[in-house]
Fold each of these.
Amino acid sequence: MELKIIKFILSNFASHFAILLNAALIWLIRTKSGTPLANYRKILYLGAIYDLIYAFLTAALQPQVIGVAEFYFVAIEGWALYIGHPIANWAQMAQILLTYASMTIGCVQFIYRFFIICL
């Protein structure tokens, strides 16, 4: 099997599995978290909803990074390739923005936990 086909299959599986598990996690947070987790529920929602959106964009775009010398290009290989040029570009920019946001979400969760536990 060609490496590109293996990447496509694994990316599809991981993205759809992440969508399924994060949707289940949101349902569990909504239905099963009681009063002990009332303060912590917001931070659980933040991580689960962020991961759900990111997994959906990854499933739609299936980005492929191509490096040529010192230049890097991102090619779209998912079904978003067929929905039109401006919309696919906006979706790709949203995924890049969410990649940067993932760096701050861990910090926000840590600080929120610190305030809940220590203060």
Amino acid sequence: MVRFFIYALLSLSFIAASNAYSADKWLVNVKVAELSAGYKEGYLLVSFETEGGSSAFSNPKNCGRTSGNFFIVDPNNTNVDYIYSMLLAAKTAQRTVSVAVDANHCGTSGYEHGQSRPSIARAKL
């Protein structure tokens, strides 16, 4: 009986720990609609559209700020320089890109524009 209780407790704690972080939400084959850089805190704001021209937006963390359908590329969450380079290349070449919207992090940089926006964690070109 004690072994069963310990086994059940360990199983439940493993399940709880594995569900503590949700999977990121990927926006696949989207185009960079707008890219804004130069903020003192080092973040970027970016919006995406589908190949058909409609806005592509996802908010898996239910972040509070969603105006303009902009995402933040937050230096407190990811390497801004690498993602900026990829997004700029995709925009310039008019190529599609796939981005992971972080399911566990809202923007923490840029009180005026970036804070509490859905955060981009990774990008694929």
